[in-house]
Amino acid sequence: MADSRKPMVAGNWKMNGSLALLKSFSQSFVSDNNAEVVLCVPSPYLAAASRSDFALGAQDCSQFVAGAHTGDVSVDMLKEMGVEYVIVGHSERRQDHGESNLVVAEKVKTILQAGLIPILCCGEPLEVRENGDVNAFVADQLAAVKTVCTSDFLDTCVIAYEPIWAIGTGKTASPEQAQEVHGFIRKMICEWNPKAQNTRLLYGGSVNASNADDLFAKPDIDGGLIGGASLKIDDFAAIIAAAK
Ligand code: PGA
Q: Helix, strand or coil for residue 209?
């Protein structure tokens, strides 16, 4: 990993957890200076999660700044709650809420305009992995963001490569498979914007305490976006320790 890229571990609780779990996290969480730690809790818990030893993340936001969008949450509201990072384009949002590449790109633009940092997710479904072109699929997802935001988005954005077939399935991409796509993404984004040498690329998809070391050892994997294992404090701490 390039020295300029500080490792990052972002926990994505999804629609899991409770105030009690958050409290136990807060009591036992020990920060680690080697890695930047982000905790993306469900929106109702943001106020209770504000802390100084990890950065606060949201799991989504509206592409609109304000207005008649019942149930949605704006970037300014997130900012008021102390949020610094916003996951955007997670495959579960794309699937459950029909978010297109264009909507995701508009969200990235709104997040950047608010001065927040997007954690932009990309990654292919199983049928593309088995019968299609993984690189072309991921390139399309990222190119849509470049079209709307210009390649300047790479100055700030964190990118998470999350093959959908590996999310929550216990079926992790091998470190070699993950590095292959990360290497492709790195090359492409550096052609778009030379500063992308400093863009952090996280791997996500069934990262756990036993496989994190091997994944994070790869040159273009700068940390992880962690779902299930971020709900278990000991596992999450072990993953953070692996990111150095
Ligand atoms: P997982 O989820 O670690 O449970 O596979 C990762 C994610 O969806 O961000």
A: coil
Q: How far is the CA of 156 from the centre of ligand 1 (A)?
A: 23
Helix or strand or coil: residue 211?
Answer: coil
pLDDT confidence bin for 53, thresholds 50/70/90: confident
Give yes or no for residue 192 having a pLDDT over 70. yes
pTM of the model: 0.97
Q: Compute the distance between CA of residue 231 and CA of residue 207 in angstroms, rounded to an integer.
A: 12
3-state SS string for 66-102:
CCCCCCCCCHHHHHHCCEEEEEECCHHHHHHCCCCHH
Q: Are 51 and 25 within 8 A, CB to CB?
A: no
> Which of 90, 106, 124, 182 is the catalytic position?
90
Q: For residues 113 and 148, is the Cβ–Cβ distance under 8 A?
A: no
